[in-house]
Amino acid sequence: MPTVSPAQLAHKWHVHLVVERGLSDHTISNYDRDLNRYVAWLEAAGINDLTTVTANHLESYVADLRRGSETTKPLAASSAARALVVARGLHKFGVAEGLLLADVSADVSPPAAGEKLPDTLSIDEVAALLDACPTDTATGLRDKALLETLYATGARVSEVLALALDDITASDGVVAVTGKGNKQRLVPIGSHAQEALNAYLIRARPSLATGKSHALFLNARGTALSRQSAWTVIKQAAQRAGLDKDISPHTLRHSFATHLLEGGADVRTVQELLGHASVTTTQIYTHITAESLREVWAGAHPRA
User: Fold this and answer.
1) Cα end-to-end distance, the chain, whole Å
2) Marked catalytic residue, from 14, 240, 250, 303
3) What residues make up the domain containing 240?
């Protein structure tokens, strides 16, 4: 499939809207604003070919619009939804012109009215949360290791709870995370998470294990820890730390990405660490070795 430039297709669609559909100047102006916003976002993400765009990219685009940046204000849900409509229109036009094989935007849902993005914790708030777990009990050591692993890897809570003992490679300082589509990625962990995991594995897990489960994180019955239990662990740690934000497992994932980017990490590396699957990130991964991932992580993560 030939390369499809976002800017060139956007211009072609603009001409179509003006000449063939005869939209008003006001409507065209609104379309152009959102078109230019989408094209600029793709360029900033290093995407210069619309054939490589996935639904994940569009979801990230909408999330970034809602979140805002240092130079742009966060958009209301209604404004972000309108911007998504325009992005969808561009992809639909590309399919109609025979330039795109499929409309990857079709299944991307607009943000609901009043929908809030997850809170991001500051580095000090994360430290307070991670230090709030008691380490004088087996479950306390487990909770400490769980929270450290969530923040150290930025993995989804389901991915962390699916970790088995064999997924931890202490000598290399990496965790083998299995994400969507059963795709595995190696994510570095730092000294804080390694220390917490070692303490849990040596001093706590043997007393929790019944010999029947290979899951890394166990409950008091010796079976794999559930999502509901992990949620409770985070809520209780937040209360002990005196944090009044609405904190969920995704808060740590969101904070992980934010802190890495603020620390100077490359956006594409962060996408790889997060496991955002797409053709683009897969191609990038072939050029990023595990060692370079560790170096970027160690230089940018506050708890490396």
Assistant:
1) 42
2) 250
3) 123-300
Q: Is 250 a residue of the active site? A: yes
| Pair (211, 272) in one structural domain | yes
301 is catalytic: no
Whether 101 is in a domain gets the answer no
144 belongs to the catalytic site = no
Q: Which residue, chain included where needed, has tokens 């009044």?
A: 244
Q: Which of 66, 88, 144, 156 is catalytic?
A: 156
Do 84 and 134 belong to one domain?
no
**pLDDT values of the chain reduced to their tens digit, one per residue, 304 residues:** 688 999 999 999 999 999 988 888 888 998 999 999 999 999 998 999 999 999 889 988 888 888 887 777 888 888 888 999 999 999 999 999 999 998 988 878 777 665 445 567 889 999 999 999 999 999 999 999 999 999 999 898 999 999 999 888 755 688 888 887 788 888 888 899 999 999 999 999 999 998 788 999 999 999 999 999 999 999 999 999 999 888 888 889 888 887 877 777 777 787 778 876 543 333 332 334 455 566 667 777 888 6
DSSP state letter for 117:
P
Is residue 115 a part of any domain in this protein? no
Regarding whether 76 and 183 lie in a shared domain, the answer is no
The catalytically annotated residue of 14, 203, 285, 303 is: 285
Annotated active-site residue in 180, 214, 227, 245: 180
Residue 168, H or E segment = strand 168-169
**Could you tell me what percentage of the chain is helix, strand and coil, using 3-state DSSP and rounding each to the nearest 5?**
60, 5, 35
Q: What CATH number did the domain enclosing 230 receive?
A: 1.10.443.10
16 labelled catalytic: no
Report yes or no on 102 lying in a domain.
no
156 is catalytic: yes
Catalytic residue among 253, 254, 294, 301: 253
Is 192 one of the annotated active-site residues of the chain? no
Contacts of 74 (CB under 8 A, 6+ apart): 65, 66, 67, 68, 117
Catalytic residue among 57, 88, 276, 294: 276
